[in-house]
Amino acid sequence: MKIIYFFTALFCSVIIQAQDSLVTKIASEHYQIINFENKKFSGNAIVDLTKTIAQHKYVLIGEDHLNNEVLDFATYLTSNISFDNYITEDDQLSIDILRKGYKKNKEYQFIVSHSNDKFSLFSFNRDREFLYHFFENNKTVIGLDNVYFNADIPVFQELINKTTNKEAKTKYETMMKESNARWDKFKIDTDQKPLPDASNQPYLFSGEFGKKLAEIQKLKLSEYEYYVLNQLAESNTIYSMGYDGKGLESHFLRISTMKEKLLNNLDKMKGKRNLIKFGANHAGKDKSLFQNSFDIGNLVYNLADAEKEKSLHIAVIQKSGRAGSFSSESVDAGDVAFLKPFYQLTGKENEWLLFDLTKINEDIKKQKAMIKSPGLKNLLNGYDYLIIIPKVTAQKLVS
Fold first, then answer.
1. Count of beta carbons in the 10 Å neighbourhood of residue 39
2. 201 contacts 243 by C-beta, under 8 angstroms
3. How far apart are CA 297 and CA 303, in angstroms?
4. Which of 204, 304, 332, 370 fits as disulfide partner to 311, beta carbons 3.0 to 4.6 Å?
5. CA atoms within a 13 Å half-sphere pointing along the CA-CB vector of 188
6. What's the half-sphere exposure (Cβ side, CA atoms, 13 Å) at 307?
7. How far apart are CA 294 and CA 282, in angstroms?
8. Is the pLDDT of residue 11 over 80?
9. Helical (H) or strand (E) element with 205
10. Which of 214, 294, 281 is nearest to 61 (CA)?
11. 3-state secondary structure (DSSP) of residue 203
12. CA pair distance 122, 127, nearest whole angstrom
């Protein structure tokens, strides 16, 4: 039995290696070098890519989060192309609080300054600067995600200031205090073994959070408060499902709510130039890279098609380096296993590789090669271009 298993494993390994070699060979025929040195891009590849991007009204960047280099690329694009909308993997409540703080509203400046590290991706300097670029130019920013698991704290601060219900205010203050305490403990050791009641995890993970919200929702509140509490409750459901071991169900609920929010903003997007920046798992025109389910990128692809437009999907992923972290100065950005055929072509750190996945995919099909890796298959079917950054550096928390 062991001998059969050994030869089966060996046979599979040989197939994967052969597949990788074939993809590497084909990829080597369809890539260009983007020069990036001293924070400046140069070369025909970036010029040609920018021209291609400018021809599309729906542009999706699928990233690995919290490195500087993806933001260097995105900033370069916005300095050369004027986008009407920025659609992001963050929640609208946080975006609205940050916008009001940016517009010099003293109340919101206070909230922001006391919660700078509690705005999901916007807790980090380059993502925050990128967001502020759109604020500065009076552009629309649309957040599709649920409330991040420490972003409930500035939301509670806002509710405390807005409510006219004394009982609700006391309850908001209690929940914010609990959330702060749990987050301060959690971020010291984000790998700690979770307790069954989630008491050593962010407050949004726990069933207690949902019960406390339900109590407040019974009170007489403003329409805005009910809206915010519904957003928090929805986020709590998504997190608590994942915490209880229902990861796929949590993923599907999260994606369906993001799609719903996107459709609710369709009037702002139609006929406009839209930049959509999400994790690479979500931004492909076909299926998500890891869950193999139709994701937000697929909906955008179809919405563009309904306008007789073509969406453009660009994955920007590193080979190595460091990424920003809530719990330490930085963490290992790591690599992606199914990108090995592309990684093998990297050279100097200042030379990013731009792969034309459409042409690569066509050649793979011509050679009737079978792609075994679901992630690689979804990448090839879901993205038009892949940019490999040899080494990235970490974003820093906003102080």
1. 10
2. yes
3. 10
4. 304
5. 6
6. 18
7. 9
8. no
9. none
10. 281
11. helix
12. 5
Q: Where are the alpha helices (DSSP H) in 55-165?
A: 68-80, 92-102, 106-113, 125-136, 152-162
Q: 168 to each of 140, 176, 216, 217, 230, how far by Cα in Å?
A: 32, 12, 6, 9, 15
pLDDT per residue as tens digits for the range 140-199: 999 999 999 999 999 999 999 999 999 999 999 999 999 999 999 998 888 888 888 888
Which residue's structure tokens are 């990235």?
392
Half-sphere exposure of 17 (CA within 13 A, CB side): 6
Six token digits for residue 217:
């929702």
Each residue of 306-364: pLDDT tens digit?
999 999 999 999 999 999 999 999 999 989 999 999 999 999 999 999 999 999 999 99
Cβ density class 271-281: b for 16+ within 10 Å, e for less: eebbbbbbbbb
What is the Cα–Cα distance from 293 to 304, expressed in whole angstroms?
19
Reference 203, options 179, 230, 176, 239; nearest CA is 179
**Under a CB-based contact definition with an 8 Å cutoff, are residues 52 and 387 in contact?**
no
Mean pLDDT on 198-219: 95
Cα separation of 150 and 18, whole Å? 45
Which tokens in the block code for residue 55? 């021809």
Higher pLDDT residue, 18 or 190? 190
Q: How far is CA 8 from CA 2, 4, 12, 213, in A?
A: 10, 6, 6, 53
Q: Which two tokens stand for residue 272?
A: 């406009």
118 Cβ neighbours under 8 A, 6+ residues apart: 148, 150, 151, 153, 154, 183
Average pLDDT, the chain: 93
pLDDT tens digits along 243-277: 999 999 999 999 999 999 999 999 999 999 999 99
Question: Which residue would you say has higher pLDDT here, 191 or 384?
Answer: 384
Task: Tally Cβ neighbours within 10 Å of residue 14.
Answer: 10
Q: How many helices (H) and strands (E) does the chain have?
A: 16, 11
